Amino acid sequence: MLKAINKWGFTALEWARLLGNEESPHTSKVVLPRYKRTVDLNPKQFQTTFGARYLRHSHFESEARLEEVLRNCPLLIKWLGTANREYARQYKKEIATGHVAEVIIRWIDDEIGYGLFADADLPEGAFVGEYTGVIRRIYRKAPDSNPYCMHYPTKWWSLKYFAIDSSTEGNELRFVNHSRSQANLQPLCAMERNLLHWIFVTTCEVNKGEQLFFDYGDAFRFVNRYN
Questions:
Q1: What does pTM read for this prediction?
Q2: How many CB atoms lie within 10 A of CB 132?
Q3: DSSP single-letter state for residue 49
Q4: Could you tell me the residue ranges of all domains in the chain?
Q5: Is the pLDDT assigned to residue 217 strictly greater than 90?
Q6: Is CATH 2.170.270.10 what the domain over 26-224 is classified as, yes or no?
Q7: Is 65 helix (H, G, I), strand (E, B) or coil?
Q8: Could you report the per-residue pLDDT of 91-145, keeping only the tens digit for each?
Q9: Which residues have CB under 8 Å from 210's CB, separation 6+?
């Protein structure tokens, strides 16, 4: 049976997922403060522990907001976004399934908090995961961004700014810490069906037990500059 798709090319199930209607059967590996052993957290335990709902995929505040963002995709012109479309094709399965590599959330100390570590050897170019959260509007006159907000690009001439906010909903990628000198992850912007995905791949071989870092750079500074 063929699945019906809407004018944007999404099935009813995919559209519902983009509006936050998603079950996320998943287990996250975590080392909590004052514990040396690893515990497995289901989505309910994840939310209780970190105050954030577990999300395999990002979603929007409303259907109107979703359609607004799709219309304002900055890469609609065919000769733009070649690399972004190729990323989406290359990592199509990982993006669709909300895949996250073998990683572990580990408590570091009271100053830093948690970090994300490789729980298996990762080759260069390995897909680690997509940065997920609520894709929402940031208003310049009344900015309410936070350190978990990552810039979601729209058309260059648009005065509307959006962010992927993982402060209350997200996945393991919300625990990756910043480092310019030790960065071993690179964010790539993949695009399919007018939808953008910030995905992370390794820039070098990463050994099991090593902490994962990326340079927050403009992706976070841009959206937080008004605060």
A1: 0.91
A2: 26
A3: H
A4: 26-224
A5: no
A6: yes
A7: helix
A8: 999 999 999 999 999 999 999 999 999 999 999 999 999 999 999 998 877 677 8
A9: 117, 118, 184
